[in-house]
Amino acid sequence: MNNACRHTKTAFINTSQTGLFGSAFNDFGEKFTVIDKNGEELQEIMIKSIKPDESSGKVIVTILDNLKHKFEDSDVIQLKEVNGMVDENGTSICDIKEIRIRVINTSSFELVDVDLSKYSKYEGGGIAKQVKVPGTVTFKTMQEIDALGDSSEYLDQSLIWADFTKIDNLKILHVINKVALTHPNLKT
């Protein structure tokens, strides 16, 4: 059934419930566009400083004291209301619509691929506003997953577990669930 859906470019969702275990398998094709990767509300956080790191030269943004951001690596932001930071053509750093970030900790992050030497000095203020950017996800078919056997490749990014209390036991949970699905009359 999954291969027939893949052939016609139709999304495939398979769910099962076996005793204590439940699973859902999704195959939305080789190139599925995701507009919102996590469904979280967009964040806006106030900035304390924007400056280069002395040792690495990376552009580091620090947010106001006692605040924490929830950004993730590779999130995209736009800067707003920053004082200073204008290039020789009068273009503000706030005019850059999409700036990818790398998280350092909950109070600071790096602006990736931003050259501070083009801009005047940071003078204060500013807000970092998260921007949702569409991304592409590649799904495997059920047949491709089954062909992996008991390989550790099962535990790639395409397998997401909802039981985060047992995050260290992903492989064993997968094997137990697979046994329960393939041997439904097995007594526990």
Describe what this molecule looks like in 3D.
- With 188 residues, the protein is an alpha+beta fold.
- The chain folds into 2 domains: 2-33 and 136-182, no CATH class; 44-133, Ubiquitin-activating enzyme E1, FCCH domain (Elongation Factor Tu (Ef-tu), domain 3), CATH 2.40.30.
- Helix content is 13%, strand content 32%.
- It contains 3 helices and 12 strands.
- The strands form 4 sheets. It has a 6-stranded antiparallel β-barrel with strand order 4-5-9-8-6-11.
- Strand 1 and strand 2 form a beta hairpin.
- The two termini are 30 Å apart.
Salient structural properties:
12 strands, alpha+beta, 13% helix, 6-stranded antiparallel β-barrel, 188 residues, two-stranded antiparallel sheet, Elongation Factor Tu (Ef-tu), domain 3, elongated
Could you give a short description of this structure?
It contains 3 helices and 12 strands; from the N terminus they run αββββββββββββαα. It has helices spanning 2-7, 142-147, 170-182, and strands at 12-18, 21-27, 32-34, 44-52, 59-63, 76-80, 83-84, 99-105, 108-111, 122-124, 127-131, 135-137.
